[in-house]
Amino acid sequence: MHSTIAFDFTKRQILKANNKFSNCIIYNTTRQGNNMLKTAIYNTASGDILRAGYIGSAHRPMSKIDDVSDFFRLLYVIDGSGVFIDDYGNEAELSPGVLVQRLPGRRHSVIREPDGRWLEFFLLLPRALYAGLATDGFIQSERWILQPGKGD
To answer: How many C-beta neighbours within 10 Å does residue 20 have?
Structure first.
């Protein structure tokens, strides 16, 4: 299932899905079976994106080695296990309840166990929003791995 809604902020109106999108905010939702649900909000004028959703093992490669992104990405492990390796080679176990901050411009690896149990929630923020939240102290960018509910 796939649906798209766009709001043209210059004309202040909702656009139909078959229109050409420019100078608008686009809200998009994609569902593939029971293993993936993604929602994204795009600003076509600035190129910014905010994306969130759930991804299961059927829709994720088992490993992301030496990954670097321009976006700030959160990965919250709901089920399954694996290993996270930061840009200095430090390793941390991934298990349910672990929150990984995948920092923009920093190399890292995520290795998921191939047992088919992997389920994650993810949040992707544009670099400018990440920078503002980090500057204001809402994001602890000196730490890759957090465990909410256990003091983090």
So the answer is: 7
Strand ranges inside the chain, DSSP E: 2-8, 13-15, 24-32, 36-43, 49-56, 63-67, 72-79, 82-85, 91-94, 99-102, 108-112, 119-125, 145-146
> What does the block give as tokens for 99?
């929150």
Q: How far apart are CA 77 and CA 51, in angstroms?
A: 17
Closest CA to 40 of 11, 9, 71: 71
Closest CA to 54 of 121, 123, 124, 125: 121
Amino acid at the residue 75: L
* Gap between the Cα atoms of 1 and 144, Å rounded: 34
Per-residue b/e over 112-139, b at no fewer than 16 CB within 10 Å? beeeeebbbebebbbeeebeeebeeeeb
* pTM score: 0.74
List, for residues 84-119, the tens digit of each pLDDT value: 999 999 999 999 999 999 999 999 999 999 888 888
